[in-house]
Design brief:
- The protein is about 75% helix and about 5% strand.
- The chain has about 90 residues and is mainly alpha-helical.
- It has one domain.
- Strands 1-2 form a two-stranded antiparallel ribbon.
- The longest helix is centred in the N-terminal third of the chain and has 34 residues, at about 10-40.
- The protein is elongated.
- The N and C termini lie far apart (about 85 Å).
Length: about 90
């Protein structure tokens, strides 16, 4: 394949074919992952919660701690958790 407009045709074709192969592998891996989640569900585990755990395990500790703190703060703000400050004052 010749060069057109400064583009090396063979190199471009090779890169495109590699990407296509990787996309095929990615689809196959996605199917494998779905099968594992289905297996987990079949044995009584909740895939939605497993996905959350996997997402959390990818985070570094500081990021996770920050998200947990914000989640608690937001829950308190909308009344989903008791306000720690009010509880502490009431105990005094």
């Amino acid at each position: 394949m010749a060069d057109f407009g400064g583009i090396a045709g063979e190199q471009l074709k090779s890169l495109i074919e590699r990407i296509e192969r990787l996309e095929d592998e990615k689809r196959a891996l996605g199917e494998d992952i779905k099968e594992v989640y289905a297996e987990a569900k079949g044995t009584g585990f909740e895939p939605k919660i497993m996905r959350q755990l996997i997402r959390i395990r990818k985070m570094d500790k500081d990021e996770h701690d920050e998200q947990e703190s914000l989640l608690d703060l937001y829950k308190r703000a909308i009344g989903m958790l008791p306000d720690a400050g009010v509880s502490a004052q009431a105990a005094e």
